[in-house]
Amino acid sequence: MLRLAMTTDAETFERVREPLADRGIEVGHVQAKERALRVSGGESGEAAAVDPEEFDGFDVGLVYPTRLMEGAVVDERLGVPWVNGRDAVVASRNKAGVLARLSAAGVPTPKTTLVSNPVDESVVVDAVEEFSYPVVVKPNSATRGVGVATATDLDSLLGVVDYLNLIHDYRATGDKSFLIQEYLPDARDYRAMVVDGACAGAVERELDDEALAAGRWKHNVHRGATARGVELEPEARDLAERAAAALGIDYLGVDLLATADRLVVNETNARPTVDAATKYADDFYDRFAALIRRTAEAE
C-alpha cells in the first residue's frame, strides 16, 4: 500500500483517510510544527538516523508544510515528492504574485494594488485614487481572512494602514506588503477544487441572515460561514481550471467571486481544506488518488 504523509491532522486529514485507504493509499500524520526537530547529530550521517520510525516509510507527501522553516527539515527527513511542493505553496501564498500572474494570463481578477511598506502616507493616498470606496485592505500573505478589512473613506483606510505599519515596523516581520483591492458588493463566494487540471467540485461559502444583518461580509468558513456544495456554471469551472493552469499547480483551491455581471478569481490556496465528499464530483477521490500515485511514481 502506498503511504502518504500529511503535515496536518485537522479536518482534511480525517476526511481523506478512509476514502484514500479504500484506494490503496495509507495516510499518516507527520507533525511539522509546535515541537522540537533535531537538525543534526553533530557527526556525519547522524542526522539522517534521528526519529527513523516517524519519518521513514512514506512514499509521497500531500502538501509541503505551511511553515517553511520547519518544512525544510521535515522535507529532508521524509525525502519524498510532494503533490504540492514548496514552490507551489510559496506561489499561492503570495496573493499579489498570484493576481499578477493570472492577470498576465488573461484571467479576470479584482482590481488590486500592492503596497510595500515602509512608504509615505502620500503613496497610499495616490494608490487609492483609482479606486472607489469602500475598498478592501488585506495582508499579502495571511490566510483564513486574517487581517482583512474594508475602508469606507480615506481616514479609515489610513487608520488600517497605521495598524499594519505597527506590525511591519517589527524587524522580524517577513512580509511587509499589503493589498488595496476593489470591493465587490453582494458577490457570491465560491471555492472550486481543481485536481490535476480539472475542476472536481465546489462549495459556496455563505453567511447566515443574522451575520449579514450584523454587517459581517467575510465568507471564510473559519470565520463562521458555511460551505454548501454547488454545481458551478461552465464559465466558473473553466475559470478555476485556467487559474490552476496559469499557476502550474496540480491541486488547488480557487476562490471565485461572482456578481451580476462579473466573475473573477480572488485568491488561490495550494493547501486547500477538503470538504465532505458529497460536495464534490462523484469521482473526486478517484482523481485525487490518481494524482497522488502519479506524483509518487514520478520520483
From TrEMBL:
GO cellular component entries: cytoplasm; ribosome
Listed name of the protein: Ribosomal protein S6--L-glutamate ligase
Superkingdom of source: Archaea
PANTHER family with a match to the protein in the record: BETA-CITRYLGLUTAMATE SYNTHASE B-RELATED, RIBOSOMAL PROTEIN S6 MODIFICATION PROTEIN
ATP-grasp domain location: 99-297
Keywords: ATP-binding, Ligase, Nucleotide-binding, Ribonucleoprotein, Ribosomal protein
GO MF assignments: ATP binding; ligase activity, forming carbon-nitrogen bonds; metal ion binding
Gene3D superfamilies: ATP-grasp fold, A domain, ATP-grasp fold, B domain
Species whose genome carries this gene: Halorubrum xinjiangense
